[in-house]
Write a structure and sequence with these properties.
By secondary structure, the protein is α/β, with parallel strands linked by helices. It has a domain of about 160 residues. It is built from eleven helices and nine strands. The protein has a seven-stranded parallel β-sheet with strand order 1-9-8-7-6-5-4. A two-stranded antiparallel sheet has the order 2-3. Helix 1 packs parallel to helix 3 and helix 10 crosses helix 11. It is globular, with a radius of gyration of 19 Å.
């Protein structure tokens, strides 16, 4: 059966309300722990994931999150927000058996967004990058273990978000001064770091990259269970790369529902996916292996629009299931 899920972020400031909505809409699909960046620093993607790092504390500066010697007020606030999220998750999913998806920022998005004490991004320092990768992997293990303890029936799916990876690989990150560009990261080094973080989880993993030109060969080499992509941005060559991944046993999370609310009819969303699927020679019967998602996170959408978009993903998944059965 074709499933549906979300990318992760959600509007509003009440995690209790967000969890109730996600569980209701995605009943029988792939629910997730929503992220609510509107709550402020520590609830944003970078601060939230940096808060999982083991023995690498951060604080918040005008430039962004920075590595520091010891945890301070910002780290304590981030940890408190995560504790609130997990307590609410345990209550909302009491008695749940089945998958629950967690999202963390990937090592290269963190390395591009977190700063060293001396005032440059972590990505410029090979040793700091290695430390960050190992620390994130350990943080992922701890995070997953906590969720399994709170929701014993959960089959945890780990999504690693890498929106900055294409920029890191192409050497387009600006220096601290803004006048230069940082050197690109070797693709083999990037893939190895991703694989290390994915290997910290013994369940299904997803790499999410919403770029118009995602580095598909590199992402495949990290061996995730699934790739989450904004399918509206994929070129014909990108779809060919998706077909190679699918034939290699990697599932597609198709970000086919626009987040501006412009397309919420299930038939239109399903048409976009199935037309591209057939153009690259994939059989209609394999549409049942796809997971339908919004194109990106929903934090910036008004709450009624976010609900409509998430429901559209569920309705499109149902439509694709019917087409797969006919194919």
């Amino acid at each position: 059966m074709t499933q549906a899920t979300g990318i992760g972020s959600w509007p509003g400031t009440s995690v209790r309300d967000a969890l109730a909505q996600v569980r209701e809409i995605l009943d029988g699909h792939l629910p997730y722990l929503p992220e609510l960046p509107a709550r402020g620093p520590g609830a944003d993607m970078i601060g939230r994931s940096a808060g999982l790092l083991v023995e690498l504390p951060v604080d918040l500066q005008p430039t962004g999150w920075r590595l520091v010697d010891r945890p301070g007020r910002d780290a304590h606030r981030t940890a408190a927000l995560m504790r609130e999220d997990l307590d609410e998750l345990a209550e909302a999913f009491e008695g749940h058996t089945g998958p629950i998806k967690l999202q963390v920022a990937g090592p290269w998005t963190l390395a591009a967004s977190v700063w060293l004490p001396r005032g440059e991004r972590v990505v410029v320092d090979e040793g700091a990058c290695r430390d960050l990768v190992d620390s994130l992997a350990e943080g992922v293990r701890n995070h997953v273990a906590t969720v399994r303890r709170l929701v014993p029936g959960a089959e945890v799916v780990l999504q690693v978000d890498e929106p900055s990876l294409p920029t890191v690989l192409s050497g387009r990150l600006p220096t601290a001064s803004g006048y230069g560009r940082l050197p690109s990261v070797d693709p083999q080094v990037a893939a190895a770091a991703l694989a290390t973080v994915l290997a910290a989880h013994d369940g299904d993993t997803v790499i999410h990259c919403c770029s118009a030109d995602p580095p598909l060969p590199l992402l495949r080499s990290a061996r995730p269970a699934a790739l989450s992509l904004d399918t509206a941005q994929l070129s014909p060559r990108g779809w060919e790369g998706v077909a190679v991944a699918v034939e290699d046993g990697i599932r597609l999370h198709a970000g086919a529902v626009p987040t501006d609310g412009s397309v919420t009819r299930a038939v239109e969303v399903a048409d976009r996916i199935s037309d591209a699927w057939q153009r690259v020679g994939m059989p209609l019967s394999s549409l049942s292996d796809i997971v339908v998602t919004p194109a990106c996170g929903l934090a910036g959408a008004p709450p009624p629009v976010a609900l409509a978009i998430q429901r559209a993903a569920v309705d499109a998944a149902r439509e694709l299931t019917e087409r797969a059965q006919q194919g």
